[in-house]
């Protein structure tokens, strides 16, 4: 979008134009020699502004498609199925642990970041680490009870923020969410992390989610540009 605005500035197109000027309709009537057999033809002419913005969008689509073309999203990771949600900012992963547990995970696209100093003798400046929110739902197969983990997924680790238990057959307006996970005793935190690790929620999942979301971000951007192009072209 920043590229789009910069290009508009270079073209000296004022952003104060009303969006209604994007499409200009010109109706032309052609009269045949015989007035009783008159034919009316309607054509659509694009304004200079509309033509220019369509050219910019199509150039951006071509650039994004050629520079880092997205690949077909994965449909599984280890024992988990992966369900993409096209047009939405999340994916759903499902799996099982043993015979009596179902695991469901909902992961967002990148929703935050942090900066960290670069390391090494010649390093200077900072690196950016992107953040993914992850909700892990582990339930018994009979559907009676479940526990949920609210997590932060960084490129190399998972941080548990909250851990709480729910009962599906009991309606509560505001369930107790438990203390902040980081305030719990170290031994307790270690045991819970191991509980998740043996169920496949580990550093390998972190890497997978970040790679997946990088690709999904490109897919969604290109589709968004195509939808915008289609709307303005009408």
UniProtKB/TrEMBL annotation:
<protein>
    <submittedName>
        <fullName>Mitochondrial glycoprotein family protein</fullName>
    </submittedName>
</protein>
<dbReference type="InterPro" id="IPR036561">
    <property type="entry name" value="MAM33_sf"/>
</dbReference>
<dbReference type="InterPro" id="IPR003428">
    <property type="entry name" value="MAM33"/>
</dbReference>
<dbReference type="GO" id="GO:0005759">
    <property type="term" value="C:mitochondrial matrix"/>
</dbReference>
<dbReference type="Pfam" id="PF02330">
    <property type="entry name" value="MAM33"/>
</dbReference>
């Amino acid at each position: 979008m920043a590229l789009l605005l910069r290009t508009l500035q270079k073209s000296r197109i004022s952003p104060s134009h009303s969006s209604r000027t994007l499409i200009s309709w010109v109706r032309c009537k052609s009269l045949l020699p015989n007035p009783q057999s008159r034919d009316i033809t309607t054509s659509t002419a694009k304004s200079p502004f509309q033509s220019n913005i369509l050219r910019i969008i199509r150039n951006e689509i071509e650039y994004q498609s050629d520079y880092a073309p997205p690949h077909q999203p994965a449909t599984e990771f280890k024992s988990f199925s992966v369900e993409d949600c096209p047009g939405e900012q999340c994916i759903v992963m499902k799996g099982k642990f043993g015979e009596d547990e179902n695991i469901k995970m909902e992961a967002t696209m990148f929703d935050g970041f942090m900066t960290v100093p670069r390391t090494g003798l010649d390093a200077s400046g900072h690196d950016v680490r992107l953040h993914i929110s992850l909700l892990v739902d582990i339930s018994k197969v009979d559907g009676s009870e479940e526990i949920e983990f609210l997590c932060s997924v960084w490129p190399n680790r998972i941080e548990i923020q909250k851990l709480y238990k729910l009962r599906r057959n009991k309606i509560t307006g505001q369930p107790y969410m438990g203390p902040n996970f980081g305030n719990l005793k170290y031994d307790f935190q270690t045991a819970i992390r191991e509980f998740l690790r043996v169920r496949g929620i580990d550093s390998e999942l972190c890497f997978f989610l970040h790679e997946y979301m990088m690709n999904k971000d490109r897919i969604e951007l290109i589709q968004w540009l195509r939808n915008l192009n289609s709307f303005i072209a009408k």
